[in-house]
Design a protein that fits this description.
Structural class: alpha+beta
CATH architecture of the domain at 637-840: 7 Propeller
Strand order of the largest sheet: 1-3-4-5-2-6
Largest sheet: 6 strands, parallel
CATH superfamily of the domain at 637-840: YVTN repeat-like/Quinoprotein amine dehydrogenase
């Protein structure tokens, strides 16, 4: 997965305020340091946000600011109090209250006059004016105050500022521009401008001015948010980022559409005074356009700017750009709330200060000529100064005498400098352009092919820095390019590679990876936008069309095939990525015999492509992962394990993002996973009631070490004791079991919960265990005696998750009521309640330091809470489309989250950026339905795809259309009539579709929203006018389908205490039956919505329901294998047949339309049972055997056909009465027929993953290349 770049974000809020006040006082850092008796370095650390003063020094500092006139007389108390609290918040220590009495006495002292300030600034304050105090106090940031009015910013007191500076550069070396700063301050603080653009050519200093100004006025805003656009982020991502930051205390739900996000952002800009800075806006605009037009796909930015400019709010958006966006031109003006500041060059005095370290010599006239020649452009002059010193010994006059050397533009200067670079220096420049952001020295060294020593790389970087071409971070060997230079080098790289491909003489194509598969996701997407796509556009302008371009690329691939792997470099990987970007796939392409480095094939279809005899390294593929139920991370943070709905357990190398091992863990869902404290064992618990221990290291890796059996129902949670000697497990049977690892004995069974036990956690000292359950209680157990010490109540509804704080002083519980409660371990008192933005907390986790808590939510979001001092929401991470089933903190600020959709996401907690997505693919036939005439079959999978099949006579079937139906697994499908069908899924939506055989297309007619969680089941009333839906939110909703427009939700039926799995209407449509996860069945009167009665059998999920044709009886099937017959009028259970079959997936059950047959799927098989009155028996038919587990079954409307689908996506359509297989339906997997014969560089686990998605070891097509690369 590559190196994760991570920097500790400085808290600049106190530092910026202190800097502003010092400048208002007219004092230098040296003068302040002398007055306080500290070093100048200490002052720099305070103002830089990396250290904070003690309370004694802070009082002295406030006294200095008062004496030297930094505080506004009318607002002095407010400003001093703000500075005090800002120091407390930034230092994140327990707060000491601001001493109001002391400051009142200070106000009585006489302030120095302005004339006296400069003459006395170096004197030390007398002891009589300095009061001492106890050691300082700090507190965590509390909720920011809401601003109800629109105050005059110019006169408003300083406020508590939340600043996020993102990629803002250091502006400490700032010279000149005082008039521009004053203009900006007047526009923003006095004229209340809503949008300001700083315009100027590249390198003129727009960004530096914007940073300096934002720092100077930050204390006038509640939020300062800096975002660089140099990598052209998509607008929806930028809006999500800004909204999450500005709304962190409110927990707002993020709209899915752009317009909704714009509206929400504007609402936040009205409620709070914010300064947003968007740097490098020109990257969004079309190059060479004189009208400020946007690049394709970025037009939404124009709408955003217009909204910000025209709508009333109390904030300001500050832009830097080389040209004015087109929609702002008619809005900009001297009296308008939209202003544009055109930057020109710096004066000679400022330039001399800027170039002081270059030690150039020249007369004032020579300096004037030099500055005039480059129009005062700071970047141009810095680059030119390197030439003056290198070639002319620092003599300006000598440089000016050489007319041909006087290059006029920055690009000419860069051209000149580039031609003087060594091969290694130019290679490093290209790699820095590819990396797109700060990159460590180690990663740059790894990028380079061939034997290049660290010393040589350092020397080359030092030379580049001296030439002002490369920038280095303040701390550490981390490097990047200045935006203008990065743009230049990127364009040069594209032009050079384009020329190489057209001339069939690749060099840079082989030595540099234009896109790095193992980069963080947002960087890789930027590499596509800024390098691959421009390169393809350049090539298309010569080739004419995509077909000719593809032929040229594949011809180049053929020419590389004869070279040794070592000589091919990055060429093969670049060609794979170019073809994939060009076509969106690499189907039927021949990459055999190539060295393929850094190829990104996640989500890229490669059916029948050949990688035979290829050498694959640092490349990423789609993984065969279905809906994910569980997640755990090894103690050292190197291994990630996820458990799927199929029962498989997959292990990944977290740092590499590559698969390590696949365990066939359980016959159905692997609900629970936990690593042992030493990381050598993995415990798993599943739907099959078992608990297993696996070796995950050493020679026995992948072997099941021990099997624990004793639970009577699903196992939902497992946890190791801190010493690794005990394992606790819990589940649906309401028990907690303690197992001894060494012997496998069950030491204790803990009883107490009334209902399923959802989660477990050991205390850090191993003496206690905390559990949560369906009975709305959290229970604390003492392990020595097995006694329940406390029963804690603070939730309404199921409590899905518990977690102990790393220090053991408290623990947390998360419930379906949307609350996370923090409990004191010693007393059992409720310490705090965190209210989530959504209805339920499905999973929670503390970070290793105990300062953060993460919660996974049912709407696909992850909330991060700061726990230092007063708990507050830090940010909300949006990215999953469905239910977040597990979260875990990793090393170095990493957070991992998984969802039922099969996606694993890796997040950087500090920035909130998604670093990596481990993309899974599931072929599971999750749901299906026949059309009324039996000619069509529709099935849905875990990827949200719907496929429409036509069943033709003679056993022929063809897929008419495959289309995206939902965001995540599709759980239920039914036909309304021969032309329309309805589907529901993980995304909480119900959709009505029309189909057209002639066009081979479908169309979504309506989308209905009403539930707040996954919709598991649908049922259509016999007259087709009403629809019922059952959800994970424990409700049933009735929908009126008679309306011409949008369907209306008639009623929401409450009463179930767990998720609703199954539904059935009575033959006359007057009654509705619903079955839930606890085995409870409710009978509802459809007209009134009243619950007539509740039927309670075994506490086992009800997978299917059907009424008898006369409506007198109800049949129910449970996942424990039992079948029950109920009398509707009395609720009496007439009969129960326990021998229906083995434990089955309760969704793989279906009654025939007349209720006489029951089909159920199991591992590899399909069973059919005959129901006749009060008797039931298994039929003798033998059905085709599935290769995997059966996940869904469906009868045709006439009961003649029976379809069954498995986890490989294979669907058998059989005659129900005879078992004869009529049709076999299977859609292509992503790598169907992909040839990996003799492939090198892949582990056995990686090969197995590719084969699970259709890859095979076909015939050899090319000879094996003669040698392996020496370096990966």
């Amino acid at each position: 997965m590559g190196y994760h770049r991570r920097y500790k974000l400085k808290d600049d809020r106190f530092g910026l305020l202190a800097l502003t006040l010092r400048e208002k006082a007219g004092l230098t850092q040296t003068e302040i340091a002398t007055m306080l008796g500290v070093s100048e370095r200490t002052i720099r650390h305070w103002e830089g946000g990396t250290a904070f003063p003690t309370s004694e020094n802070l009082k002295k500092l406030i006294e200095i600011y008062w004496q030297y006139g930094a505080f506004h007389e009318e607002h002095a108390r407010d400003e001093a109090r703000t500075l005090w609290h800002q120091a407390a918040e930034s230092a994140a220590r327990r707060s000491i209250p601001f001493d109001e009495l002391w400051f009142e006495e200070l106000l009585q002292t006489q302030r120095r006059s302005p004339a006296h300030v400069r003459s006395s600034s170096s004197s030390v304050l007398t002891p009589a004016l300095i009061s001492s105090s106890q050691e300082p106090a700090t507190a965590a940031t509390g909720p920011l105050p809401a601003q109800s009015a629109h105050p005059s910013p110019a006169s408003a007191p300083a406020t508590t500022t939340h600043a996020e500076w993102g990629e803002a550069p250091d502006a400490s070396a700032f010279y000149g521009r005082q008039q521009e700063l004053a203009t900006l301050e007047r526009w923003l603080l006095s004229d209340h401008c809503r949008l300001v653009v700083v315009l100027g050519m590249g390198g003129i200093g727009k960004t530096t001015l914007a940073v300096r100004f934002a720092q100077q006025v930050a204390h006038r805003f509640e939020f300062v948010l800096w975002r660089s656009l140099r990598n052209a982020p998509p607008l929806d991502e930028l809006l999500a980022d800004c909204i999450q930051t500005l709304a962190q205390q409110q927990g707002l739900t993020l709209p899915g559409q752009l317009e909704g996000r714009m509206t929400l952002l504007l609402d936040l800009l009205r409620k709070r005074r914010c300064l947003l800075v968007f740097d490098n806006v020109e990257t969004l605009l079309q190059p060479g356009s004189f009208e400020g037009r946007y690049r394709e796909g970025y037009e939404g930015y124009g709408r955003l700017l217009r909204h910000v400019a025209e709508c009333t709010h109390q904030s300001c958006l500050l832009l830097t750009s080389r040209e004015l966006p087109g929609e702002l031109e008619p809005l900009e003006g001297p009296l308008s709330p939209v202003r544009a500041l055109k930057l020109f060059g710096l004066e000679r005095e400022a330039i001399q200060q800027l170039l002081e370290e270059r030690r150039l010599s020249g007369t004032p006239h020579a300096w004037d000529e030099l500055v005039r020649h480059y129009a005062g452009n700071p970047l141009a002059l810095k680059i030119a100064a390197a030439t003056v010193q290198e070639v002319f010994g620092g003599q300006i006059e000598a440089f000016l005498r050489e007319g041909p050397m006087l290059l006029h533009t920055v690009r000419q200067l860069l051209d000149y400098q580039f031609e003087r670079l060594s091969s290694l220096e130019s290679d490093l420049m290209y790699w820095l352009a590819i990396e797109r952001e700060m990159v460590p020295l180690e990663e740059l060294s790894q990028d380079l092919l061939g034997a290049v020593s660290r010393r040589e790389v350092l020397a080359a970087l030092k030379s580049l820095r001296w030439r002002c071409l490369v920038e280095r971070a303040e701390q550490g060997a981390i490097f990047t390019l200045q935006p203008v230079v990065m743009e230049y080098v990127s364009e040069r790289l594209v032009e050079e590679v384009c020329s190489e491909i057209l001339q069939e003489r690749p060099r840079l194509l082989l030595s540099h990876a234009l896109m790095k598969a193992n980069s963080q996701d947002y960087i890789r997407e930027s590499q596509i936008r800024m390098l691959l796509q421009p390169l393809l556009e350049c090539l298309l302008s010569f080739c004419g069309d995509e077909e000719r371009l593809e032929e040229r690329l594949m011809a180049l691939a053929s020419s590389l095939r004869g070279l040794p792997y070592t000589a091919q470099g990055y060429g093969g990987g670049n060609l794979v990525n170019l073809v994939a970007t060009l076509n969106g796939h690499v189907r039927d392409k021949d990459f055999s015999g190539l060295a393929v480095r850094q190829a990104y094939l996640q989500g890229i279809e490669a059916q029948r492509a050949s990688f035979a005899s290829a050498w694959l390294s640092d490349s990423l593929f789609t993984e065969p992962v279905e809906s994910i139920a569980s997640l755990t991370l090894s103690p050292d943070g190197h291994l990630l394990a996820v458990g799927s709905f199929s029962g498989q357990i997959r292990l990944w190398h977290l740092t590499e993002g590559s698969p390590l091992l696949t365990l066939r863990g359980h016959s159905r869902m692997a609900w629970a996973l936990a690593f042992s404290p030493d990381g050598r064992l993995l415990a798993s618990g599943g739907y099959d009631r078992s608990v297993k221990l696996w070796h995950v290291s050493g020679e026995e890796r992948g072997q099941c070490f021990r099997l624990f059996q004793g639970h009577e129902k699903w196992v939902r949670a497992v946890a190791f004791s801190p010493d690794g000697r005990l394992l606790a497990s819990s589940g649906m049977d309401q028990t907690i079991r303690l197992w001894e690892i060494e012997t496998g004995r069950c030491l204790k069974v803990l009883y107490g919960h009334i209902g399923p036990v959802w989660d477990l956690a050991f205390s850090p000292d191993g003496r206690f265990l905390v559990s949560s359950g369906n009975d709305e209680t959290v229970r604390l157990w003492e392990l020595q005696s097995g006694a329940c010490l406390r029963i804690l109540r603070g939730h309404s509804g199921d409590i899905m998750a518990v977690a102990f704080h790393p220090q053991g002083e408290l623990f947390a519980s998360g419930g379906e009521d949307g609350l996370v409660n923090l409990w004191d371990m010693a007393s059992g008192h409720l310490l705090a309640t965190l209210r989530l933005h959504t209805t339920r907390a499905a999973t929670i986790a503390f970070n290793p330091e105990g300062t953060l808590l993460a919660s996974g939510c049912d709407d696909g979001a992850v909330e991060i809470w700061q726990l230092s001092g007063e708990a507050q929401r830090l940010r909300i991470l949006h990215g999953h489309s469905t239910f977040v089933s597990a979260v875990a903190f990793g090393p170095a600020g990493l957070l991992i989250s998984v969802s039922y959709s099969g996606k694993v996401k890796l997040w950087d907690v500090e920035s909130g950026k998604c670093l990596r997505i481990l993309q899974g693919h599931s072929s599971v036939a999750r749901s299906m339905a026949f059309s009324p005439d039996g000619r069509y079959l529709v099935h849905g999978d875990d990827n949200g795809l719907l496929r429409l099949w036509l069943l033709e006579p003679g056993g022929q079937a063809r897929c008419l259309y495959a289309f995206q139906g939902h965001a995540g697994p599709i759980w239920s499908i039914l036909f309304r009539d021969s032309q329309t069908f309805i589907s529901s899924g993980d995304d909480q939506a119900i959709r009505l579709w029309s189909l057209s055989e002639q066009e081979g297309t479908t169309r979504c007619l309506q989308t209905w929203h009403g539930h707040s969680a996954v919709i598991w089941s649908l049922a259509l009333a016999p007259d087709g006018q009403r629809l019922a839906s059952g959800s994970h939110d424990r409700t049933v909703q009735l929908w009126d389908l008679r309306r011409e427009g949008q369907a209306a939700c008639l009623k929401t039926l409450h009463g179930h205490s767990s998720m609703v799995w199954s539904l059935a209407f009575s033959p006359d449509g007057s009654l509705l039956a619903s079955g839930d996860n606890d085995g409870e069945i409710k009978l509802w009167e459809v007209e009134s919505g009243r619950c007539l009665r509740t039927l309670q059998g075994e506490a086992s999920p009800i997978g299917a329901l059907t009424f008898s044709p006369d409506g007198r009886f109800l049949l129910s099937s449970s996942n424990d294998g039992s079948l029950s017959l109920w009398e509707v009028s009395s609720g009496y259970r007439c009969q129960r047949w326990p021998g229906h079959g083995a434990l089955t997936w309760f969704r793989a059950i279906a009654f025939s339309p007349d209720g006489s047959l029951l089909a159920s799927g199991d591992e590899h098989s399909l069973r059919l049972g005959q129901i006749d009155g009060l008797s039931y028996h298994l039929c003798e038919q033998t059905f085709a055997s599935h290769r995997g587990q059966v996940w869904s079954v469906a009868f045709s409307a006439d009961g003649e056909l029976l379809a069954s689908g498995d986890d490989a996506g294979v669907i058998f359509v059989s005659q129900a009465r005879t078992g004869a297989c009529l049709y076999v339906l299977q859609s292509e997997r992503p790598y169907e027929g992909m040839n990996i014969r003799h492939v090198r560089g892949l582990s056995e686990a990686q090969k197995a993953s590719l084969k699970a998605l259709g890859a095979c070891e076909g015939s050899e097509t090319t000879p094996i290349a003669p040698s392996l690369p020496a370096k990966s």
